[in-house]
Amino acid sequence: MTRISPLQASFSAIAALGLAVVAGPLAAQPLSLQPAAPATATARPAAPRALPLPPPRPVGLGTPRAVAGAATPAPAATATPVFTAANEPPRPPAATPAKAKASAPQTREEAIDRINTYFNSFSSLQGDFIQFASDGRRFEGKLYIQRPGKMRFEYRPPVTMEVVADGTSVAIRDKKLATQDLYSIGQTPLKFLVKERMDINRDSTVTGVSTDGDVLSVKIEDRSTLGGTSKITLKYDFVANELRQWIVVDPQGYETSVSVYNLDTQRRPDPKNFVINYERVL
């Protein structure tokens, strides 16, 4: 297993938020940074493994065995049953027509409206994520969101980092080193995840809209993030009506992609997931 240094883990957690690593009292300070590797295409997470089908039913299973030398009795004649109102069995429900497949948006305005409508359709969300850093390293974990303003990225070992937003601030914690860096939630480009109401045109600059199969991609720029302008690509499956991925290029040019799956918008996350202990930084 590849060892993840605390410095790498810290930078990965910051990259998940799309925060540029800059000098300042609130910024994490890496000792050295390698040039960003060329962006590589990221595949969707592997589909869940299909359950094996049961073996075929053996021929003659459940019928009496024939006795050697015995004549096989002829099948008895059966009368056609007559049903009355009193003994008529329930009829099977009528087949439900198959739901029509959602069509691709035809205009830029329709595409943006689809994205806005999706994000405004839920107040809570949780699921799994896979994060790819610009150098190809991969990290996994759980994501929890409670709108407005609350969010948690919980990384799986060996990463010891976690990212928590409580509605006002974003804390990047290192559980192993017992450190915590604080940012204003308005400095992160992931505001689209936690805003109470989403309006891409109002909150950012839309620079491109495209479709690839069932996936709608919307490219936006956010000039209010820490360190400068962040470029964000949202990938939304308009057939499944689910967010699939976001890609953030921070002001320094580092690209981070986060794919999400197993999303649940019905269960409300535990409020304890979004608590920041401010005494740790006093």
TrEMBL record:
Keywords, alphabetical: Signal
Bias (Low complexity) ranges: 39-50, 59-88, 96-105
Stretches for region Disordered: 39-107
Superkingdom in the source lineage: Bacteria
Keyword tRNA processing: no
Coiled coil: none
Signal peptide limits: 1-28
Protein known as: Outer membrane lipoprotein carrier protein LolA
Species, as recorded: Bosea caraganae
